[in-house]
Amino acid sequence: MDFSSLNKLFEKSFKENWDRPALSNYQGATLFYRDVARRIAKLHIAFEQCGLQHGDKVAICSKNQANWGVVYLAAITYGAVPVPILHEFKPGNIHYLVNHSEAKVLFADELTWEGLNIEEMPDVQVVAQVNNLRFLFARTPELAAVREHLNESFGRKYPDFFGPSDIKYYEDKPDELAMINYTSGTSGFSKGVMIPYRALISNVKFAREDAFPMMDNTCRIVAMLPSAHMYGLTFEFLFEMVIGAHVHFLTRTPSPKVITEAFASIKPSFIIAVPLIIEKIYKSKLKPLVDKTKLLFHMPVVDKILQGKIRSELVKTFGGEFEEVILGGAAFNPEVEAFFKRIKFPYTVGYGMTECAPILSYAHWDKAKLYSCGKCVQNMEMRIDSPDPQHVPGEVQVRGKNVFLGYYKNEEATREMFTADGWLKTGDMGVMDADGYLFLKGRSKCMILGPSGQNIYPEEIEAVINNFSYIVDSLVIEDNGGLTALVYPDAQKASMNGISYEELEAKIQGTLPEINKIVPNYAKIRKIEIMPEDFERTPKRSIKRYLYQRK
């Protein structure tokens, strides 16, 4: 496979997989590669007639759906720069990002468009509805006419028929800007990450050669992560389009129930997920069984039988035909991870960041080490900024083809991301063993300095807290020189078990001594505060930590 141009890989894939299914809305319509190619061709005509130039920005703000994929591919294969924007953002934030990116065209779903004000986006020439590609707004009558006569224009350009030989996509260069992805991370306001083609190609090449060499055009994938986020975009969509696979977009909120139903019917070939999904399944389905049979787990013969049975049920829950489950985007609960490792469930934990589109480290499940997130991937180098990288945590720093070009219109923030000798600062702390396996310890920005200068990683304490019953999630913060745990309780589960909210609060407060028995002395929790509602989260389901910090 020639990895010199991403768009030429798409072109080759569309020609070779013309009559194969490409994009489906779960429990909805399916577009074949020929259908997607035809829609791309129509959008290319519309872009040209609207005066869109190579390098112009095309913003896409919509929930996951088949036509999201069509629009993204149409923009990038035209030579325009797609700008995915999370539809969960507030209207004011969407206005800001559309304007900041200088987008000329905006694709939005109907619900998102209802909350927007075109007067707040003066540079936008056309707004189109994602699900049917109709124009919702055109700056001039001439632009409105483009959509009205689009079928006619398509017929004139392809008078006989539109076939594989008619596909000719923009040929990209490695260091050329491919897309802008706005971070929605836990440390503040969004920044526009400029992703070059070389980073996308390098990630796709890694997937093709290292992560999924066994995958081909007969494979199926359930896309449940936001396509506007690099993790989902790269490994649930771009890679699949290159190999001719079939992507099923979950168009509904990916609750455990919806996800397991989708897995059962689609039987995905591999699964990309965030740890929270797995942890919820463990907590609701497996932990009660494990707690009941704890004594039996110490009897070798029974232990082996139980492990096999649990593994078999779990594999069945995920569709039964997948190569492995790759987890990323957030820390994995150590108790859950250890249990999954023990029963030999085929999962692995990867590590990446938006600025690297996104992959940085990975190991296949049968080579992965417990609590590690794998080894540095191809085309990249990794180092730990520490006097003793194997034992003393330091910042993880990287360089290579996956690294971004910088933040759009923010040179100062770009400079701050790099060391004097040109390595990208990830902001994550970790150690690396003699075999090159990375073990993350937490975000350097989240690290709390203990009373005697100890480094306290709140994520490690939160993992302990989250194992207690009736706790959905927690956040440990520095509070007047001590540590406070903010806890969001599982009131629904408590109610089902006949526990009142007052009893639930008392029960959770009662866990404080137990928590402090487990954590180091310098990391003891001073108090627990009950949160009345869930934390505000990023699309990766990470808590937006910066919203809850106290001075």
Structure overview:
The chain is an alpha/beta fold and 551 residues long. The chain has 3 domains: 6-249, 3-Layer(aba) Sandwich (Rossmann fold); 271-321 and 324-443, ANL, N-terminal domain (Rossmann fold, 3-Layer(aba) Sandwich), CATH 3.40.50.12780; 456-548, ANL, C-terminal domain (GMP Synthetase, Chain A, domain 3, 2-Layer Sandwich), CATH 3.30.300.30. The strands form 8 sheets. It has a 5-stranded mixed beta sheet with strand order 4-3-5-6-7, with helices on both faces. Strand 15 (351-352) and strand 16 (359-362) form a beta hairpin. Helix 2 crosses helix 3. The model has no long low-confidence stretch (mean pLDDT 91).
Topology overview:
Layout: H1 6-16, E1 21-25, E2 30-32, H2 33-49, E3 57-61, H3 66-78, E4 81-85, H4 91-100, E5 103-108, H5 110-114, E6 126-129, E7 135-138, H6 141-148, H7 150-157, E8 177-182, E9 192-196, H8 197-211, E10 220-223, H9 230-243, E11 246-249, H10 256-266, E12 271-273, H11 275-292, H12 300-317, E13 325-327, H13 334-342, E14 347-349, E15 351-352, E16 359-362, E17 375-376, E18 380-385, E19 394-400, E20 406-407, H14 411-416, E21 424-432, E22 438-443, E23 448-449, E24 455-456, H15 458-465, E25 471-479, E26 482-489, H16 491-496, H17 501-509, H18 512-518, E27 527-530
Parallel strand pairs: 1-11, 3-4, 3-5, 5-6, 10-11, 12-13, 13-14, 26-27
Antiparallel strand pairs: 1-2, 6-7, 8-9, 9-20, 15-16, 16-17, 18-19, 19-21, 21-22, 23-24, 25-26
Helix pairs in contact: 2-3, 2-7, 8-9
